[in-house]
Amino acid sequence: MAADYKSLCSAIASSDDKTVRSLIRRKHELVSHWKPLCDAAFLGQPQYVEALLRAGADPNQRAGTASRHTPLTRITQYHKTIPRHEGHLRCVELLLKHGADPLQVGGPLSWQPIIYATVGPNLDFIQQLRSYNSNDLFTACALHDLAQIDEQLTHQSATSIDSQGYSPLHYVSVSGMWRVMNPNQSLDCARILLDAGSLVDAVYGIPEGAEVFSATPLWFAVAHSENDALAEFLLGNGADPNVAVFAATYRGDLKILELLHKYGADWNQKFAGETPIMELFRYRRTKVVPWLLAHGARATDTDKKQRTLIHLAAIYGAREPILSALVAHGVDVSTRDAEGVLPLEYAREHSRKDVVKFLERACN
Hints:
The chain is mainly α. Helix content is 51%, strand content 3%. It is built from 22 helices and two strands. Strand 1 (204-208) and strand 2 (211-215) form a beta hairpin.
């Protein structure tokens, strides 16, 4: 069956209508696998979503991957580089018509579909889903609905935690509704919640390998909604800036870096054995490395394998100005890691020609 479902997914991806319909008809058991329906939904192909549902596909099935997506959350999860179109709206309509549960949580952050829709935000998805959602405090916060938040706070505590572990303030922070409303409305929502007793640093735990990352409302504002005005408001109300450091350096936006620095962010903290600057080399996002070095990030720290930043640059690549900045800030190009390997040896192994040239000159 594995090979067959992959064939069906491949046909869906290439819009091979004849093969898709033939496989559904001849091998009916394929519709029970989660991936064909999730793929068709994600690609916005209502003709295949409908064919699979009519053949008996479960509209509420979960992905077998770590993301645990449902077809609805797969569609509504925001992706900057993957625009949604009319086909996606039709897929949502078909899924709901065939019994998809609009309140079922799924995806990497265990949200309801409407919450994913607020991140962009996608107002069309929100309109399709809103009538199915109860007027609860958490949804009202994601929608930045001030009147409904006020109403809900008359009989629900601002310190409430939902079944997934999120606070109301988390939902205000993750939402991108500030882009299509008065930007100050997100601040007003946060202010109401904080005045009512919400914790500014309420934690939602995200497993990361052997560790658990403590995601606060500030982290969501920086990493997901990119609502820098809200981030500043939360910092002004006592939010810990360090939780957002890795998200901010990954984004590479100097405005948010300056803001966190103003509130005392620690650029040398470690998570899973890495500092923010180490992570940037691993992700090949080194644009803000000079800024970090100029604002207190140590160039001489090592990771769990005793690799310096020059080791990482040799493995993942870096431009000469970055390499020069590391050396200027004290990195020794002749340091060996825990396995006794020199940066130059890594650079040759990974065919980093520019790094090889730089290190050969530096070593001489």
